[in-house]
Write a structure and sequence with these properties.
CATH topology of the domain at 112-118 and 126-290: Beta-galactosidase, Chain A, domain 5
Low-confidence stretches: 1-30, 32-55
Number of helices: 6
Shape: globular
Mean pLDDT: 89
Helix content: under 10%
Largest sheet: 11 strands, mixed
Length: 754
Amino acid sequence: MFFGRGWQRIALCGAPPLLAAWLLASPPARLDAGAAAPPSPDVGLSLRGMTVPSAAPPRLPQGPFIIPADFNTDRERVFAAPGDFALANRHVTLVVRKRDGWLVDFWRQEATPATSGALAGHSRIDGLWQLHPVLQSGGAQVSVTTGKVSHEGDSIRTETSVSLGAGRVRVITRYRLDEDAPRALITTRFEHLAGGRLAHLSLGDAVKWGNTDYFVDGARQKPTYSGKGHWVGRQGAGGDLMLRTGEPTPMGIGFRSYHNGLSGEVRTVYRTVSIEVGGSAEITRELSYGSIATPESIARTGVLKVTLRDEHGAGLASKLSLSGLLGTLTPHFGNSGGLSGAGRFVWSGTGDFSRRLAPGRYQVWATAGFERDAKSWQVDIRADQTTTLEAQLPRVVSTPGWVSADLHLHQAPSVDADISNAARVISVAAEGVELAGATDHYVVADLGPTIRELERSGRLTTRVLSMMGSEISTVGHLFGHFNLLPMEPGQNVNYTDTTPKQLFAEMRQVAPKGLIQVNHPRMDSIGYFARYRLDPATMRVPAQHQAEYSDDFDLLEVFNGLEMMSQPKLRKGLGDWLKLLGRGHRYAATGNSDSHGLFYLDPGLPRNFIRVPRSTSDTDDLSVTQEEVIDSLRRGRVVVTSGPMLEVSVDGHGPGDTVKLASKQAALRIRVQAAPWIDVTQIEVLLGPEGRRVRFIPVTERGKVVRYDQTIDLAVSASTFVVVLVTGTKALPHTHTPGTRPIAFSNPIWLEPG
């Protein structure tokens, strides 16, 4: 394997959502915040595969061709694998996957800037995840797949037959490129082969193409939509991309987001027909890059300028949260805007802001993470005038020996995260997170080159460390999503049609020093515990699953950003984890944002404070090595928080440690710190696998940094463990999701009575 100033291509290993890209590789043995040569803004990830020279890859042929065995491209998010079928003209390349006949790539030949602000800086990126026909008859809905793919003249042809209860239908799709435009022409013919009459057969497509705003006939839509239109499109990777019906009447269009931060799959219905045996129907549509016109605001505006500095007067990565007052509308800068505005937020890597706003009165919150004070103003913005604000946001919560980390972050390398690497780094720094774990789907991501370039160019004045990893999301036999940290360029794990035992064993082999984290374990259909129906009472899986289920993991994501607003979900996750601890599993609990964008899932909400025993100051914390972080995570030396800083100890021993007591009493010290703007109202002391609450402590101190600092006695009659939970009732003021309350909990201290 070749490290240094070279390029590494992602190797493809035959799963639906394969992402391909190039990396300016950097040595993986340290946490990366150093000063190396700056990369191209488009780089920042890798996976396994061959090393190739840093020269541009050879241009692929025009016309129809088969993806060659030595295929390489400088585009990100490319799914194409050797043997797939492709078409190319001077504008675009189109790829249909051989094994299922799905359209999986549609990229521009020339570097084209992304048209969503959050992806700024990424100009070599494929614009499509997947497109394939969908049939629906009555309650039956079928995604059309086929293994019969071929070139036919200047087209790609797929053919299969589908059973729909009352009949059997042959489906033939042809893909062709316009000679002189970045446009694909798609025709699908449906032939009723056998069976009864199909009275209401809906003919459409399923489309995935990015985590960004969707438009229908030019109008920006909410994350959930159901209606009609002549076209549906999105701004983002490769430019504006539109799917347009070829039928004379509007098509049905629907999409629904699981969460506002995760854009849903688009489903279209071009026609609904009745077909007798021997009959047929045909639909046409086009997929094309073009231009989605968005209305320009012509109202007069004023300018808000804000300068934020740390306690030493140095530039400070920070964030503004804006709300309208006294009849002024709260601003909304679009769901996929960039650092200068998305949602109601603005970010800066230096603490220098300038933002145009409609005239009116606003509440402005300035924050730079949980360890710093915040500043709030009410300001009047007047047309054609500039309002200037200045403030320091000093560090008020001192955390020497602790590094704050978000170990579950997505960015441009993930096909469902339309946020640039640069925007991700700045947004993380603005939330006060010190260590960013890059865990993109199916690739080993590296934010180190981006950090170095931002520092070199003066766009980032707050230090950030990074760690390479990947979220290994299973495909085919779907049973969950799992982070592996750390990883190195060139490492890869098979995630298609595998089992937990096989997957975890391969992860151990690929990264022997790495940690396996189970992500969002109870989350609907993509949670490991949910998929295997882990009994919350016994924490055992049903007998039929025991042969393939594995408990060989290290970290459990007890707190996920998608569940930030739900106390019951948090309590349920805590309950699962405590019971597993009681069964002898020393899994370290973590909390991570799972952020896929700038603001829907705020990065660092929640986060982990990881113990760094040798550090004696907040500055020294940033010299931590990767080995120290991994060692502390493995030992459970972690506190999870969405606001308060919690420190607990017994006889000087903290989370993850085992304490041999001299008697059947334990002196538990609890220290809670919080910035003045973060609410803390109660402390709960939980003992043993049932989470028995042995102490409930109201917190009465308000406004001060140290909210509680006392030692309490616990009766310990047998070997057990203690976990401390801290909560607040007043919502955080600077988050996207309303009602997000401060919460913190410790990993266990293991107690052995004398």
